[in-house]
Amino acid sequence: MTHYVALIAGQNGAYDVVFPDCPGCVAHGRTIDEAHRRASAELSRWLRDQDASHIIRPVARSQATLLANLDFADAVADGALMMSVGAGAMQDPAAHQPSMR
Questions:
Q1: Does the pLDDT of residue 49 top 90, yes or no?
Q2: How many other C-beta atoms lie within 10 A of the C-beta of residue 24?
């Protein structure tokens, strides 16, 4: 399973999740737990769309690497939470078709 670092920011009732390594992949939730669950589902969906479009998946950078970026570090300093979000190993479904003998 691949894990990507997510930033969760907001307040009770409205949390937003963004993935620095996956532009355009965002999720929302009323609680941090709900935002995390939705982030996992959205990340899986986003990666499936990338795969279907034959776009190479982005490399998942480490927290340390991301913290070296000043914008990312500022967001964390301002209270955003860093969270690891897993996405299942989604492969091409055609690769799992039984062979006809």
A1: yes
A2: 8
The answer to whether 88 and 4 are in contact (CB under 8 A) is no
The DSSP 8-state label assigned to residue 97 in this structure reads: P
What does the alpha-carbon distance between residue 76 and residue 33 come to, in Å, rounded to a whole number? 18
What separation in angstroms does the CA of 88 have from each of 16, 21, 45, 47, 67? 22, 16, 10, 9, 25
User: How long is the chain?
Assistant: 101
Amino acid at 23: P
Q: 3-state secondary structure string, 52-71?
A: HCCCCCCCCCCHHHHHCCHH
* Calpha distance 67→81 (Å, rounded): 12
Supply the pTM of this predicted model.
0.81
